[in-house]
Amino acid sequence: MGCLSTWTFLLFLLEITGTFSQGTWGSIMGTSWRPNPAVYHNEDNYEWTTWFNVDHPGGKGDYEKLNAIRFYYQARVCEVPRALEARTTEWIPARNTGERVHADPALGFWCVNDEQPVGRNCSNYAVRFLCPKNIVSDNEELIWGPWSEWTVCPAQCNQVATQHRSRSCKSNSKQCNGQTLEARSCQGPPCPRCDLQCVMGKVNDECDGCNCQDHTVLGSVRSAGGLPAPGAAILHAGSRPKLLTVTDHNGHFLVPGICPDGNTTLMIKLNNHAPQQVTVPPSTERTSVLILKLERAKKLYVLKNPENKARREGQTAAFCCKVNGTPEPSQYEWFHNGTLLDRSQYQYDETLVLRNLSLDHIGEYYCRASNENGAIKSKPATLTVIGQKAPSCNPKPDSHLIRLPHDCFQNETNSFYYDVGRCPTSTCTGKLDNGIRCKDSVSYCCGVSNMEEKEIICQGYQLPIMVVTQCGCKTCVETKAIVRGRAIAADTDEPMRFGHIYMDGTRVSRTGYKGTFSIQVPTNTKRLVLTFVDNMQKFVNTTKVLPFNPKGGAVFHEIKLLRKKPAVTISSRETNKLDLGEVEGQDPIAEIEIPPNAFYKENGEVFMGNVKASVTFLDPRDVSTAAAAQSDLNFIGDEGDTLPLRTYGMFSVDFRDEEGGESLNAGEVKVRLDAAQVKMPEHLKTMKLWSLNPDTGLWEEEGQFHAEKKQRGKREERTFLIGNMEIRERRLFNLDVPENRRCYVKVRAFRSERYMPSEQIEGVVTTLINMEPTPGFSTNPRAWGRFDSVITGPNGACLPAFCDEQKADAYSAYVMANLGGEELEAVASSPKLNPNIVGVPQPYLNKLNYRRTDHDDPRIKKTAFSMNVAKPRSNTAEEANGPVYPFEKLKECEEAPFSAAHFRFSRVEGDRYDYNTVPFNEDDPMSWTEDYLSWWPKPMEYRACYIKVRLNSAHEINVRSRNMGGTHPKTVGQLYGIRDTRSIRDMDQSTVSAVCLEFKCSGMLYDQDRVDRTLVKVMPQGSCKRDSVNSMLQEYLVNHLPLAVNNDTNEFTMLAPLDPLGHNYGIYTVTDQDPRMAKEIALGRCFDGTSDGTSRVMKSNEGVALTFTCGAKEVTRQSMFQQMQNSLGQATAGSARPGRGNRRQRGGSTAPRSSKRRSTRNSYTRAQTVG
Fold first, then answer.
1. CA–CA dist 622, 1002 (Å, integer)
2. Which residues form the Ig-like domain (predicted)?
3. How far is CA 235 from CA 264, 293, 321, in A?
4. Phi and psi (nearest 5°) for 848?
5. Radius of gyration of the chain from Cα atoms?
6. N or C: which end of the chain has fewer CB within 10 A?
């Protein structure tokens, strides 16, 4: 056997020496072979066969054996081949692959996977053989087809390459002898003349720059945060950047030959950093020095999402998408219903234009932008296309039931409900031109186009009601989305006073003395990211992604802040270890190890003094920490999708110079995670370190972990996951794993426990906390892994959750709901579980293991429920209709009919009732109607008015305000609406109660032409006598004529003041962009009896307008409210919760009503949807 030290294609082609002849074999590994200049030479009576490929590299390897080739191709190979040649299917010669291969012309060619380097398999090879020429007859030539034209020569200028031509066999019965492919050498074109002129030095060989032999560029590169940047690439910038060198371990580099002419530009590239270009300045020195500091690369982030459009057939629609990042996106792609659109057909970039629309264009559109570092997808936009003559909106209104007053029982329907109709909330075409624009200049929505007045027969009187009879396409009501809330400590509820709030790096607001804040959401915002910064340095800087109602209105959020851990003093010259773990009695989850001399100042100088180190850890083993978690635990995947993370803990770091207080960075920090704390083995392989981008609220990868065993004691050996990171400008980090087992949980919120479709509430913040898996895992059942919040819309909310199909109880979750700070109640699960009330049928409900939080202990709040997030099985019919939906069926979840299974929350119903002559849904601004009798005369400027009434009685009294037109000629004597409210007993005086009663504010009506002073009657329901009227209020009314007649001492009548008077008058007025928030603020002041305070406890003696004394006979709840909750009302409303007849017995408590009101005042303040 001969061992060939060099094996090239030329050996196969030489006539005399070097071919693999019969009986010899050769093996090669990593040898350097030259390209074959010619595949076929008509010389010496030998020629090459066609290429054969009969095996693939799966299994043990790739075996192109001669006997197998003869089996498949019969006589195409001669009996005794002279030599063989091999290449991969990618046309790479075998000599260039670096793989160990074997060849023998008598046996064939083979490559064995086990002989290759670790982690590598053989390529897929093809072979051909050198055989004697056959004497071809004329008849044989006739069965070959003609040769094709030679391919274009691919050679570059002044270079040699190979071009090919081919032919095919025309015979179906006879074997064609000869070649199907021929190749020949070809010469590239002459290179163009180099016209580059050099001010200094000489033109280089590539003609792309100047070379100065006597000049050297020295440089230092530092990463974001000032740390040295080893491994940074230094390139010559241009149309084709050329690598010159890379930085050493200190971030230094040296490049000789660069001309200091002011025209030479270098580019510096470093992983996870933005590329930076620098021009070598003009100089006459022999050396130039460059000092560079790189910036962190900005991940792609969507600035503008495409917007929903409605068009008619034949019109044009444009969708726009704007993405920012470093570098800028190099490509935009558009998708329709998940399918990539052909760029050559639509000619799109960041704007997609669809012309001559048809019904085929209906659906969802989104863009995907990408650059060299990744991709990101926009939110989808929906395109609605309707026929030329089809109505833009369905003219027939949907059914919508409103509740009538207690004395208006309807015999026709056998209920207290009346159908007033409403128009669907959807976009429509309107009168749009064919202009191409990203945002329509005017937005059109379906709304009320016609209403009729009806009369409802009540006990002793008739009640007017406006009923929607026709819907049409209207200009959308302009809305403003508001986010309100308060920022407080997670441990003690201490407010963050006068803290700053940032959005996109810009300060947009600040918190008040009580931690309260209010922010208007910018138009077209899809994802609201706010960062709360405490000036007093008590709390960790906290970034939150806050859901809001895109239809407008205010949403309340309580921001829980982690208190900063007290700083400890460490020496920068020593190795320091800081534990990450906050659960008493349990080992830390991880530790941070900082080696000596690892601290740096902002300018990159090594810090050698003492360091004040504060590391605050959010430990998910304590479920109470979930509310304080930062952001929303999402990241952007390689394909641009927003994907979820499951956390094993977050930590915030703050390193400062002990003396000067300067913030310090740290390099080469090691994070050591205890593998025993990772309860799911598969997570050990996918655990990563992440840092939070405070501008986008998204987590970005910082590094990966590797396993390392460590001896603890003589017998115990533990495994740790080791990750390396740098602490630079970002100070919040996360130990997370991506999780792909995802579902959605359907939740709806209601105004009452009747759970009627018409009483659903929008703007409720629903939250789901994923708990750690339990069965099959050794785990702390109170540990959480992820949380998500979603705002309810007209059809509820779909909450993301981790789920499992194989084990129903593998993942569990807690679900809760909050409206303006009020916690809504979940449906009871004990003493009896009623599937009809819960909203989920059996047997699926049992599988989900629904439990309200007070299931085992009635003293616990009723404001949440737990469940198993069992992924529905595709072949089980009862699991195919909610409340849990597979991740790919989000649209089905969002559009699920009311009859589909869902979980329910309801408000803790207060003793109040609202009736509007013109129905209006405070959750839907489009339900507002231009009518003189509208309670709210102007959308987006809601004015709430309350009067405080004190009642001397041993019992709680129901009080009504009847609101009618007073001075406006269009409405005088006509009813605006009714408000009924039950008084609240004083905590300290058993014979005193008080009520804050809403009335319609005076002011302009919808046409803004003239004011109307509302005629308001305040009527306690029972044997009551008016004792006194606030003297300042009485004086105001006397001085602002006309004066209403007040002959009846059982009630009080006034023409409501035009001015916002305040607590000294017993009148409380608040104007806001959201009706619920206006009521909330006004009620808080009324309860407190002040003009600027707020209270959840009624203060009966403060800020009172009217005082009545009532007889001993109690006006029972039955006379006012119980009738609206009796069995007749339930017959229409659907199933209701049992055990709620007596409000005082709620939750098994026997506390007085006044103390009970501490927790229910918020529910009392919310207006009912009546439209």
1. 52
2. 282-384
3. 11, 16, 32
4. -80, -15
5. 39
6. N
Q: Is the pLDDT of residue 637 over 80?
A: yes
* Model confidence pLDDT, tens digit, residues 581-615: 877 878 888 888 889 988 888 877 888 999 999 98
Phi, psi of 804, rounded to the nearest 5 degrees: -145, 140
> Token digits for 110?
């083979």
| Separation in Å, CA 323 to CA 174, 439, 697 | 62, 17, 16
Is 960 a residue whose pLDDT tops 60? Answer: yes
Amino acid at position 291, single letter: I
* Residue recorded with tokens 């199933």: 1135
DSSP sequence for 536-557: TS-B--EEEE----TTSEEEEE
Token output for 207: 């003609």
Give how far Cα 967 sits from Cα of 929, 971, 1004, 1016, Å.
Answer: 21, 8, 11, 12
Q: DSSP readout, 229-288?
A: -TT-EEEE-SSS-EEEEE--TTSEEEEEEE--SS--EEEEE-TTB--EEEEPPP-SSSEE
Q: Alpha-carbon distance 936 to 1165, whole Å? A: 16
For tokens 């990101």, the residue is 376
Structure tokens at 84: 């063989």
Confidence of residue 717 (pLDDT cuts 50, 70, 90): low
Neighbours of 897 (CB within 10 A): 10
Selection from 825, 931, 936, 903 nearest residue 1167 by Cα: 936
Q: Distance between CA 770 and CA 449 in Å, rounded?
A: 46
- Two structure tokens written together for 886: 């597979």
DSSP state for residue 146 in the 8-state scheme: P
Give CA–CA dist 1095/1087, Å, rounded: 6
779-808 burial string, b = 16+ CB within 10 Å, else e? bbeebbbbbbbbbbbebbbbbbbbbbeeeb
- C-alpha–C-alpha distance, residues 1082 and 998, integer Å: 9
Residue 751 CA, chain-centre distance (Å), reads: 28
- Over 70: is that where the pLDDT of 954 sits? yes
- Tokens of residue 193, six digits: 């003349």
Backbone angles phi, psi at 521, to 5 degrees: -75, 125
Nearest to 1162 by CA among 510, 624, 416, 558: 558
What's the CA gap between 712 and 717, in Å, rounded?
6
Element (DSSP H or E) covering residue 673? strand 665-674
User: Does the structure show a pLDDT above 90 at 947?
Assistant: yes
908-913: average pLDDT: 68
Q: Are 1005 and 932 in contact (CB under 8 A)?
A: yes
Contacts of 206 (CB under 8 A, 6+ apart): 242
Q: CA 450, CA 729: separation in Å to the nearest integer?
A: 59
Q: Tell me the one-letter amino acid at 321.
A: C
Q: Is it the case that residue 8 has pLDDT exceeding 90?
A: no
Q: What average pLDDT does this structure show over 743-748?
A: 94
**Contact status, residue 705 vs residue 719, Cβ threshold 8 Å:** no
Checking if the pLDDT of 420 tops 80, the result is yes
Helix 1075-1088 × helix 1153-1165 angle, to 10°: 150
In a 3-state reduction of DSSP, which class is residue 44? coil
| Residues 1169/758, Cβ–Cβ less than 8 Å | yes
pTM of the model: 0.70
Q: How far apart are CA 860 and CA 854, in angstroms?
A: 5
How far is Cα 657 from Cα 226, in angstroms, rounded to an integer?
Answer: 16
pLDDT at 1138: 35
Q: Which among 1027, 1022, 1028, 1014 is positioned nearest to 1117, based on CA atoms? A: 1022
Nearest to 922 by CA among 829, 998, 854, 986: 998
CA–CA dist 1098, 710 (Å, integer)? 62
Query: Higher-confidence residue: 1168 or 887?
Result: 887
Q: Which residue has the tokens 């440089």?
A: 219
β-pair partners for 301: 324
Specify the length of the chain in residues: 1171
Residue 1155 CA to residue 1138 CA, distance in Å, equals 23
| DSSP-assigned letter for residue 88 | E
